[in-house]
Design a protein that fits this description.
The protein is of the alpha+beta class. It is built from 13 helices and 17 strands. Helix 1 runs parallel beside helix 12 and helix 11 runs antiparallel to helix 12. It starts with a helix and ends in a 6-residue tail after the last helix.
Length: about 550
């Protein structure tokens, strides 16, 4: 291909790497290196007239068929509170007796970046970090039913999952209010991030009661700062129904009142999504619970606090009757296969960005390879081998075209020097040489073009896949999602890129020729800080490309020219 087209492609590719590097910096808690941030971490101010008590928002009940959108403020009752600590093989949790709310949840199998602390998903120390899971009852006729602000009494029982114990139940019971008593039981199971939550609604009055059950996630609206191109993975509420499918409910849009949750349905779930981890409320456990009609609501409570709620309309409860509703609270990693098995569409919380159409099958293939090899690093190497094999003949044609370009390069250089003062004749003569030698000037573009979307798609796979977090490869590479601590992989990548440049045809223009050598060196600066898994991908791709191009150049007799 002609020089300017090749240069444009390299510039586009280089700019893509700049964007990717900046995004990786953002997701690791650092400031963008190359591009300025256009927004700080979101810190919303409370709207006029709001008070801190809004953080205690209780959804309002809606009459059948209506769609009331929450949320009035309600002051917390001044009553003694007990915080019940629960420990299982996966969780360390704290459940507040006020509403039996999950106020703290530590994931014991996942460490923070420094590996000295576990990941904490839920916490309630301050509004700036508040993230809790709440449930309660709503009245359709004005009674004050038990909700997530109601004092509840913990029932006696074990609080720690013993060795060999597979299930741990922790129950809370409210005093009667509005004629209803509310009993909530958390059912923790060994090896599962899905916690069963059983709701028992007891009518202790002498009249039938109409009630609604709400399940709510409350979270601060702070998200990672983005660059001017805004390619962050999604953080915020989400909802799903079989009819309307997956809905992202952005914090900023909620604050502006521009969000429309899915309409009422007899299926679906709500979630709060962040990088690597997610929490979700589902009606799950028995057919009657799973088929309840439900509404979906979001609310800006002020003080940078937001809620997403699912409100289920319960059957009429007769005097003396106990109605049991089974639900589930998922709180854990975004492991795609496990999420698919829990509920339809739950795997969609894993954000692959705009390249999902490529990233998703790449992850599937990578996961299959990991099932065979048992190591994510070697799985990345095997993935590149398979991709190169799949595109072998197309790449072979492209490399053959580049080899022919390299063979006729001396003739092109001589012609350019001879006709340097006659640009029109130079262009005509160049086209004649291409036609005579049967060289396609665009043929060499393919190896570069095909790598750009695959490279970016794999970046999103590494970025969004919690499996890559702290995943080792060999020796000094103990985390494929982090940069190489000894810079060995970036150095190898740079050397292979320079060798590949030597195999390519040299541009006739001296400045463009220098640029072709400088660009691999410039890229190496960014690759120093790229995740090791991505650098490993690029090295493997370079080595296989070099082998294929070396063979073709040698066969055509242009090696070293």
């Amino acid at each position: 291909m002609n020089d300017i087209r090749r240069t444009i492609l390299w510039v586009i590719f280089g700019f893509s790497l700049v964007l990717l590097w900046d995004q990786w910096q953002v997701f690791n808690g650092n400031k963008p290196t190359f591009l300025p941030s256009t927004k700080p971490a979101a810190v919303a101010t409370a709207p006029a007239g709001s008070t801190p008590a809004a953080a205690n928002g209780v959804p309002t009940a809606s009459a059948p068929g209506s769609s009331a959108a929450a949320v009035p403020a309600q002051a917390a009752p001044a009553a003694p509170r007990e915080r019940v600590s629960v420990t299982t093989d996966l969780f360390k949790a704290v459940i507040d007796s006020e509403g039996a709310t999950v106020n703290y949840l530590e994931l014991l199998k996942f460490d923070e970046a420094d590996r000295t602390k576990h990941v904490v998903l839920f916490e309630n120390d301050s509004p700036a970090t508040r993230y809790v899971a709440q449930t309660g009852l709503l009245s359709q006729s004005g009674e004050a039913f038990p909700n997530h602000l109601t004092p509840m009494t913990p029932k006696a029982g074990p609080r720690e999952m013993a060795e060999g114990q597979n299930t741990l139940e922790v129950s809370f019971e409210s005093a009667p209010s509005g004629g209803l008593k509310y009993v909530k039981t958390y059912v923790f199971k060994r090896g599962e991030y899905t916690v069963g939550v059983r709701h028992e609604v007891v009518n202790v009055s002498d009249q039938p009661r109409d009630a609604q059950l709400y399940m709510q996630l409350l979270r601060h609206g702070t998200v990672a700062a983005g660059t001017m191109f805004g390619t962050n993975t999604f953080t915020g509420p989400a909802a799903y129904t079989n009819e309307k499918k997956f809905h992202k409910l952005d914090f900023k849009d909620i604050a502006k009142g521009k969000v429309e949750p899915p309409p009422p349905a007899n299926d679906g779930w709500i979630a709060m999504v962040q990088h690597y981890f997610v929490s979700a409320w589902l009606l799950k456990g028995d057919p009657a619970s799973e088929q309840l009609k439900r509404e979906f609501r979001v609310k800006d409570l002020g003080d940078n606090l937001f809620t997403v709620a699912m409100v289920a309309t319960l059957p009429k409860i007769a005097p003396g009757q106990t109605l049991v509703v089974n639900s589930a609270l998922f709180a854990g990693p975004e492991e795609e296969k496990k999420l698919e098995a829990i509920a339809p569409g739950l795997d969609l919380v894993k954000d692959y960005g705009i390249f999902a159409i490529i990233s998703k099958p790449l992850y599937w293939l990578l996961n299959q390879l990991h099932g065979i090899l048992g190591n994510w690093g070697w799985s990345i190497v095997a993935l590149v081998v398979l991709l190169k094999a799949a595109f072998y003949w197309l790449n072979a044609k492209a490399y053959a075209s580049m080899a022919k370009m390299k063979a006729i390069n001396p003739k092109i250089m001589e012609m350019r020097e001879r006709l340097k003062d006659k640009p029109q004749e130079m262009q005509q003569e160049m086209m004649r040489i291409y036609k005579t030698e049967k060289v396609n000037p665009m043929g060499g573009c393919f190896p570069i073009v095909i790598q750009i979307p695959v490279f970016i798609a794999l970046y999103w796979v590494l970025l969004s896949s919690v499996e890559m977090r702290h995943a080792p490869w060999i020796g000094w590479i103990t985390d494929l999602s982090a940069p190489d601590p000894w810079y060995i992989l970036p150095i190898v990548m740079t050397l292979t890129s320079l060798f590949q440049t030597w195999l390519n045809p040299t541009p006739p223009d001296p400045m463009q020729a220098k640029l072709m050598w400088i660009m691999p060196l410039a890229f190496s600066v960014m690759f120093i800080f790229f995740p090791a898994g991505l650098v490993l991908y690029w090295i493997t791709n370079n080595v296989l490309s070099i082998a294929q191009q070396w063979f073709i150049n040698k066969r055509l007799g242009v090696l070293g020219k």
